[in-house]
Amino acid sequence: PAQLKKWLAFPKSWGPTEWGPIPFLPEPDILVRKMEAAWGPLENYLGLATAPGKGSVVTGLRLGNVFIGIQPALGVEGDPMRLLFERDLTPHPQYAAYYKWLQNDFNASAVVHFGMHGTVEWLPGSPLGNTGLSWSEQLLGAMPNVYVYAANNPSESIIAKRRGYGVIISHNVPPYGRAGLYKQTAQLRELLNEYRENPSENAALRGTIFDVVVAAGLDSDCPYVAADADASESFPRMTPELADSLSQDAFDAYVSELYTYLGVLENRLFSEGLHALGKPPTERSMAQYLNAYFDGDVSEDIIDVIVKASPDDGMDAIKARLEKTFNLQVPADARDAMSSDGATATVGDKVIEAVEIRDLLAMNSQEITGMHRALDGEWVPPAVGGDLLRDGKGVLPTGRNIHALDPYRMPSAAAEARGAAVADGILKQHQDANDGAYPETVSVNLWGLDAIKTKGESVGIVLRLVGARAVKEGTGRVARYELIPLSELNGRPRVDVLCNMSGIFRDSFANVVGLLDDLFVRAAEADEPDDLNFIRKHSREMSSNGLENSTARLFSNPPGDYGSMVNERVGTSGWEDSRELGDTWASRNAYSYGKGAERGTARPEVLQSLLRTTERVVQEIDSVEYGLTDIQEYYANTGALVAAAKAAKEDAGVVNPKVACSIVETFGKDVTPKDLDETLRMEYRTKLLNPRWATAMADQGSGGAYEISQRMTALVGWGATSGFAENWVYDGANETYVEDEIMREKLRKSNPQAFRNVIKRMLEAAGRGMWDADEETLSKLRELYSDIEDEMEGVTLAKSAKRT
Question: How far is CA 310 from CA 77, 306, 307, 325, in A?
Fold first, then answer.
């Protein structure tokens, strides 16, 4: 403790300097006093990773001049609510000791952070530029920070640059796989194929088809709905008797719908396994990247030839092989392609692009080269961040110091148009479910990640809902967002929008925040009828109730702070019901931002008023790699926002309040909004419960087991916030990861902590009523959990000895 105090202290005297005396210097022990105010006297601290009487413990492996360690946990063990209510909470002493030891005792020449979502760059301090009192500044000090980061996450890498002084070395994402069909879905495809061969003769299969649909849990996504059914009617129970009673045309129409849905499931993309740093793709992986990128525009046979060609083969050699194998005329270069007829030009352009992408992907070894260049103090070439499927070959090769975009050009013209199309789809989706009524308030999540990758599609969604458009200067920069006259909106109202901003969006796009705030002020002041301008309507209602700044619509965490803390509470199982998590989200996101002095002013009453009128929440998903079920932030924000809106409506006296949620996957051509539960079912079928995905992850060892474990926590998180709890998902998870002996032992050996969490989440789900598991299954899970606990605690008693 005494040494840590010295490491955290400022000098007692400063200067002299070439600028003369420096006024307002901090007290030498200001950081120590802040830490002791949060954690008590350092001599008495016995928290994370400490030993009585010996101070903090720095754990890791030292190999000569290299120290390999795991970043300390950033949390409050056993008391996660402190993170919520103590805005000035410092990192705990062991965390600070870890980094100060690297600086002052180990004397590190540089530090390399592997993998995104580290924590040192997110510590309390100035949100944009560090000061001497920012904990990121203090703990990293003068150590060069080389940060190995996923190429498709430029938004969070900005924080690593801005607050962690990181030199980013981008790495590729895993290859893309197709989900395929398995178990009951594969059986159902076979039944449908057999039935479609001769529907009249195979009518006996009707009941079996309905049985398999129900057993697979597909009756929620593909229910039978009569052509003349009223939208308000509940779906009939899918029984063999119902199947047999349907007319030939009605059943055939349902079979066609079901067949189409299975095709969507089968062809859905996911990340297969993990990426090995600096390792070029195998032929199989290369083909997966190219097939996913071209999505059928280039045949798999042609891609196979391109992939198997020697790396030394140029375009001419590949062109000759394609002409010989497929009698395919490929233009020699892009200029020839442009002068060729349409079909040949298209094939030629695509083939040329495929060869270029193959060569760029083969340069993955530059990820190691880039890291070496950074450690040698050399220049690391820059590149735009993004992912191959959405942004094209410009994001390759990896091993680059990635950057984002110009915030003053948001949204781009394409993003504004695409966002408008999404918003129109959201309004149609809501009208279809509500007898043609428009929503009064829609909550749109504005995240830095998707805003950067899509160049502002989420902003485009907001503009369209409000009824506005971007006005640009001659330089192409956005000057303002102007209201579109009501006469051009074709009779639809201006929809009020609650903008929930991530900390990255808040900090990175202050100009956009100011322009949006100005837009909402002008919309509220517009001389328009309340029934055609819900922004004006709600603003006037709030003003009449005495609320200040009734036009505030952009909310986020406190200045310099990040996260809803809902995932921390779910991770520690420290919650009782969804309302509690909704309240946590609301308390963390009650800070209003805008132009002028509106820089994080607490306005919980305005937020609650907006939540009471919120009828739909919108979340954009911009990449295949990170879906709703893959990371904790989605349920911790989108799911918790739904819970917060329901809680606000309950407080207003609404019985059984309903808040819909639209999920928009913008990484593909189809941007039709889907319901939250529909998207969750799709993701769980194609990833967590899919043997192909599960095997690919488990084969990656400890890291893959961790990824599986995280998705089990997210499954509980969605149940905790949005109420998603369907037995077939938990049954399938138990069958895939526990009852399968080979899989069970693979996870248990590679990462026992992760496997313990898988079991823990299943038991937690059953205990909280999310999973209706039988007692025999639960008994096996409890016994397995106890065995793993014993193993991790070093108990080696034989099973037979335990029984005696």
Answer: 54, 9, 8, 16
Identity at 447, one-letter amino acid code? W
Which of the residues in the chain have pLDDT under 50?
77-78, 80-81, 83-85, 334-346, 797-804
Q: What is the rounded distance in angstroms from the CA atom of residue 184 to the CA atom of residue 204?
A: 19
3-state secondary structure of 629: coil
> ∠697-699-701 over CA atoms, to 5°?
90
One-letter amino acid of 760? K
Q: What share of the chain is helix, strand, coil (3-state, %, to 5)?
A: 50, 10, 35
Which uninterrupted H or E stretch holds 55?
A: strand 55-56
- The DSSP call for residue 626 is S
Q: Which residues contact 380 (CB under 8 A, 6 or more apart)?
A: 167, 169, 370, 373, 374, 400, 401
Residue keyed to tokens 């043997």: 691
pLDDT, tens only, 452-479: 888 999 999 999 999 999 999 888 899 9
Q: Which residues contact 141 (CB under 8 A, 6 or more apart)?
A: 99, 103
What integer pLDDT is reported at residue 347 of this predicted model? 54
Residue 450, SS3? helix
For the chain, how many residues are written? 804
Task: Give the DSSP per-residue string, 530-553.
Answer: GGGBHHHHHHHHHHHTT-S-TT--
Return the amino acid letter for 345: A
What does the alpha-carbon distance between residue 254 and residue 225 come to, in Å, rounded to a whole number?
Answer: 8
Q: How far is CA 727 from CA 378, 417, 709, in A?
A: 55, 40, 18
Cis, peptide link before residue 16, omega less than 30° from 0: yes
Cα–Cα distance list, 791 to 593, 745, 750, 751, 783 (Å)? 51, 13, 13, 12, 12
The β-bridge relationship of strands 145-150 and 166-171 is parallel
Is residue 468 within 8 A of residue 483, CB to CB? The reply is yes
Side by side, the strands of the sheet bearing 145-150 are 111-114, 145-150, 166-171
Distance CA 95, CA 56 (A): 9
Whether cis (ω within 30° of 0) applies to the bond prior to 411 is yes
**Amino acid type, 18:** E
Q: Identify the pLDDT of residue 337.
A: 44
Instruction: Kindly provide the residue ranges of all beta strands, DSSP E only, lying in 397-529, ordered along the sequence.
Output: 401-403, 441-446, 468-472, 478-483, 496-501
